Every structure is written in structure tokens, then in C-alpha cells.
Amino acid sequence: MREGFAFVERARDGDARRGTFTTPSAVVETPTFMPVGTLGTVKGLTPAEVESTGARLILANTYHLWLRPGPERVGALGGVKRFMGWPHALLTDSGGFQVFSLSSDNRIDDDGVTFKSHLDGSKMRLTPEESMRVQGLLGADVAMLFDQCPPADAARPVIEQAMRRTTAWAHRSLAAPGPATQARFGIFQGGTHVDLRLAHLEEIAALSVDGVAIGGLSVGEPIPEMYRVLADVAPRMPTDRPRYLMGVGTPADLITAIGHGVDLFDCVLPTRNARTGQALTWTGRVNVRQARHKDDERPLDAACDCACCTTFSRAYLHHLVRAKEMLGPRLITQHNLHFYGALTRAAREAIEAGRYAAWAAATLAAMRDGDEIGAPDAGPRTRRLSRG
Amino acid sequence: MREGFAFVERARDGDARRGTFTTPSAVVETPTFMPVGTLGTVKGLTPAEVESTGARLILANTYHLWLRPGPERVGALGGVKRFMGWPHALLTDSGGFQVFSLSSDNRIDDDGVTFKSHLDGSKMRLTPEESMRVQGLLGADVAMLFDQCPPADAARPVIEQAMRRTTAWAHRSLAAPGPATQARFGIFQGGTHVDLRLAHLEEIAALSVDGVAIGGLSVGEPIPEMYRVLADVAPRMPTDRPRYLMGVGTPADLITAIGHGVDLFDCVLPTRNARTGQALTWTGRVNVRQARHKDDERPLDAACDCACCTTFSRAYLHHLVRAKEMLGPRLITQHNLHFYGALTRAAREAIEAGRYAAWAAATLAAMRDGDEIGAPDAGPRTRRLSRG
Fold first, then answer.
1. In the 3-class helix/strand/coil scheme, how is chain A assigned residue by residue?
2. pLDDT tens digits, one per residue of B102-138
3. In a domain, B182, yes or no
4. Domain span holding position A122
5. Core-most of A13, A107, A119, A186, by most CB within 10 Å?
6. Is B117 within 8 Å of chain A by CB?
7. A323 reaches B (C-beta below 8 A)
């Protein structure tokens, strides 16, 4: 692993593991969840508030920052972390996922992708070399190698082609220059085909990468399919480096994937859903918009000690959300990220105590039984956009 | 003055005065500015953040809270202060101004006003008795008596009719029941006619009111006209009770009106303008949207010690505002209110030191000379809506 970086597995309980990922700017206790700060801001929150949720590693989106305000500008201002005032660790994605999902008119070839900006329609081109150049300027602790992420309904030969391209692009990404203080994580593909997943994992893990990420899940496939792949694949990922499941997920997804040995997660769900009034709690989901909360003096989550839950009532949050007051999304975002921080902290403690399976079962049951909304939304729209 | 309330004039310098307004829930040092929390939230900020700007008295709008979430609901939840978690003092306006400016189809008669809600078009009626009933349920420290505010271009007979109605409504408002712990301030009208102003002031001040407010200024008249009226009228307002200039204003307006003896102000300007990227500083206005800030690592205001100015650069704020990120309006709102808090604190110190005129002249000159935008916007739209 690059100088200044280290990963230590501290405890194991079944396939679940408890580790410490050290970067030059943070000590990250794993499993952990990375809040998404797409444009160099976790929407609505200050860095100090993000820090107060327990997060020490956050994610920013290369594609979005590339388009605006531009990597040269961010680089001249000291990189994303200094630009946004985040004192801990940062990871940038490669930009590939957004190029495929947000841009129009994208045409992929063996060299890279040509696409039109979703902001102004201007023509742009992303290659492994350009992705690494941009990520170098953004200056995160961790850069992701450029990959091709096929859609959930892609046929097996399309997935195999994406795997070949991803491997070739990984070699080119690694050959591209970058800051000495920046770690690089490789991504493997393979859809929901376990044989393809294992073959591609072996290829990517064999490279000189500082971490290995599962790409191409949570892109619209049924959740049980994702869980099945994770059960068969995650335990076979390298033990000496962080294992990252990209774009995932719900609290239940995290609990399940941690059980299979995943260390790192990111997802817009807790922040995006907060902005439509959906809170995530130890007793399931709460839709603050619903009329039942109009006169409810209770906090969102009686078991939560965040600034939102210790100060404000459901009635007030309901009023803020209905009146489209900014403070509503802000407070629910803070709660949701605080909850994700508490959830992963509890998972770490359960692994250390050797009682992960029991903790996971009890926690999932309490969420399911208390859920005020119903079955988790597994619709493709929510999941497809889960990487911001 | 009602039990639990007191006003003490502590120092005087020319017509400017430095006082202390005590309510059952706060000690308010005057002159002071009341941040506007229209719907029971100062847009984007927590109560703790509003408190950190120095504010101890804030304003909420009766009209808006009457429509949503409704006074009975707010009353059952303990009143606006408990509902929103504000631990200091609160003032509610009478609702009249918004009925005239925001509702459609309003028809005024000697008994009250019939109008259609700007939210759903439903027909409603506001009378002095209804305003006091609603304000009683909202439970602020200070309620305003229901008045008729004529437009800036009203002819003298129309203004005289509004004065007669306002006096009659003041008597009815005072006769209406209300919480024993709620003070009541009267409002006088008279447009820009000094003779009418002085006559109506005398009528209203003679009532058993705990404070006297200047209504019907900053409604679209030229700023020099407003300043002329203030110079002639404010010094003749009662000395034993707070003097409140409603819906005002810019930093220059505050400095000028404080010089004429005004104690209390409210205006949406620092909060509303923040949401479009306009910051107010000791060296004039800064439009954060402008391209010149793209690469500027300086804070908004080098002389400011608020959380925004001590942490973030103009370049980052510019990026947030351009990318429509919530954090931008939030941080600039916090700065602007912090600046208004610092401005009124400095004014109080200058009065105590007997150097108000010199301080005011120097402060106005620094703002004018450093202003990055140009002459203050005196257009009717900004000023008319200055009461939220």
C-alpha cells in the first residue's frame, strides 16, 4: 500500500470484519459509511456537522466537480478538501458512473467515453488518463480507477466486454501520473454472475491497487440478487486492503453487506431522501411529510442523540417540510447521517464482541417491525441514481 | 407596562438612545435588529445559530402561521417559541401587512379585511379581535395591534382614513382578550406627511400600549423621504417605551434611524438577499454570484468573526451559490445576521461612548466606498416586500 496508508483487520466475526483504514489525513474505523458530497458539499451541512456524525471519510463526485467549478480551479485552491473545509479523508469516484447515467449521447469505445455535459450540452471526453488527471487535481486521499459499469439488464457478453475494458483501463489508470499521497482503488465488475465476478475480482486484486471496490451492483437488479452476489463474492475479496461496495445503500443493505465482509459504503440515500422528508431510524423509515406527524411532539427517533432529535419535534419537522423550509432537509439530513454513523459504530462493536449475526438479526427485525412506510423501495430509479 | 416587561433608557447621544427592553423571556439590548422567522424558522438556520448572531428578539409572521400550520395547532404545541425551539423573546406582527400585500381580492371595511389565502385561495377574514386571538395562541412576548397600512402612493384622504381605522382597531385590539404575559405595541400611520404622523403618533401613544411602532414606511417611498419623516417624527416618540420601525431595513437605514432614536427593527433583507447570494459587510455589499469571486480565497468580510467568514472562502461560497447548493444561502444568511448583530452592537457602544454621529458617518462612508455593487436598491419591489 502507498506510503501513509495502511489497512489493519482488527477483528473478525464470521465473514464480517472490523478494521482500521489509515490515510495521511484520517484514521477511518471500518466498516464505515461515506457521506456523499457530490459538489464538494454534503448538501445542507457544514463540514463540522458532517464530522459530528462520526464520518471521517467522505466522497465527492469527479464528474460533477470536473464540470463545475473545474479541476484546475479546485486544484489551484488547494484541492477539494481545502476548498470545502473538510479536515479528514476524502475519496473521489472516477466519473465513469455519472458519464453513463447523467450525460446524454455518450459513446463508449476502447479508449474512453465521449459524452455531452448534462449542464450545457458541451462535448467532453473521459479516458482513464483524464480521470486520473482530474482526480489528481481534486487531490482526494483515494482515487478510483476508471471503469465501465454496465447496466443491470446487460447481457452476459456485454458484461464480459465491460470487464475486459475495465481491466485494460485499470492498467492505463495505474500507469497515469498522480500525487504520491493519493491511494488508488480498483473496481471489478461482472453483473450478478458469480463466476464472472470472481474471475474479474482476481484480475483487479492482482494489480497494485490499495483497495478493491465492487462496482455495478445496486444499479437496478433485484435486492436479493445483490445479496446473493455479495454472499458469494465479498468474502473472497483481499483481506489486506479495504473492500468497498459502491453506491450502497439502505440500512438493511449495509447490515447485510457488512455481514459478508464489506468495509466501505457510499450512497446518496440518507442525504437525498432527507430532502424529501424521509428519515431513517432504528425503528425503520419515517416519512415526515405524512399528516400523522402534524401534532406529534415526539422526536424523529427517541433512540437518537443527534441535534435534530434532541431539539425538534416531528410536528415541527413536518411543518418545515410541508412549508418547503430549508431547515427541514438540513435537520433530517443531519439525523440520517448521524444514524448511519451510529449504525456502523454499532456494527463495529458487534463484530468486536463476536455477536454480529445476532445484532444484525435484531436490528433488521426492529427496523422492519417499526417501519412506518412499508417495504423498502427497490425500484430502479432510486437504486440507479444511488451514486449521485 | 405589563408585568414582566420593562424598558430603560440607559444612555443618549443626540437623538440616538441606548436602552434595555426586558420581557419575561429575554433581556434585549437596544437598538437591536429582529431577524425574521416568517414561518417559525429563520430560513436555513437553527435557533442556536440565530442566537449566536447576538439576536435575543426575533419576529414571526402572524399571517403565514395563521394559514399554516394554524394557530390552534401552534398553540397546542406550546406556542411558536416552543414549537421552533427559540429560547429568547419573540414578536408577532398583526397579519395586516401581509393581508394587504400577499393575499388577493382583499376588501377592507371599517370592521376588518376579507381576503383570499395566497396558498389555496380560500376566503378568510381578519379583524382586530381575530388578530389578537391568533397572536394570543402564537404566544409571542409581544403582539402588534391590528392596523391598516396604506400604500406609499396613497392620497392624503386615504391615509387619513387609514389612520382613523387604525385608531379604532387599536381600541378594539386592546379590548380583546389575550395572555397576561403578552405585551402589545401600537402602530401609527401617516404616510410621509409629518403633520399626520405627529397627530397619529399622539393618538396611539396615548393608549395603554407597551411600545410604539412606525408603520407604513419602507413601503415604496423614496428613501430620502423616509429619512426626512424619521428625523421629524422618531425623536418625538415616547421615551419610556420601545420605538419600533417596522420592515426596515438596509445597514444604512438602521444607522440613520438609530441616529433619530429608533430602538427596534425587522426586515427580511439580510435573510432574503442572502438566498440570492448578496452579502452585507462593513465594506458594503458583496454579490457572491459575480464571476470575480471564482478564485478568491479571501473571506466574505475580513473584519467578521462569524462561522462563515472564519471558515470559507469567497471562491467556495461562489461555487455553492452558482451550483444552487443549500449550504450557500445558509452560510450567507448566518453571516448577514451576524453582521446585523455586530452593527447594532457597535451602534450601542458608540451611543454609550457619546460618539454616535462620528461612528455613523465613518461606518456609512466605509460601506459606500467599499460597496461592490453600486447604489442601494431602492426599488419598490424590494422595499414593499421587506416585511416578509
1. CCCCCEEEEEEEECCEEEEEEEECCEEEEECEEECECCCCCCCCCCHHHHHHCCCCEEEECHHHHHHCCCHHHHHHCCHHHHHHCCCCEEEECCCHHHHHHCCEEEEECCCCEEEECCCCCCEEEECHHHHHHHHHHHCCCEEECCCCCCCCCCCHHHHHHHHHHHHHHHHHHHHCCCCCCCEEEEEECCCCCHHHHHHHHHHHHCCCCCEEEECCCCCCCCHHHHHHHHHHHHHHCCCCCCEEECCECCHHHHHHHHHCCCCEEECCHHHHHHCCCEEEECCEEEECCCHHHCCCCCCCCCCCCCHHHHHCCHHHHHHHHHCCCCHHHHHHHHHHHHHHHHHHHHHHHHHHCCCHHHHHHHHHHHHHHHCCCCCCCCCHHHHHCCCC
2. 777 889 999 999 999 889 989 999 999 999 999 999 9
3. yes
4. 6-273
5. A186
6. no
7. yes
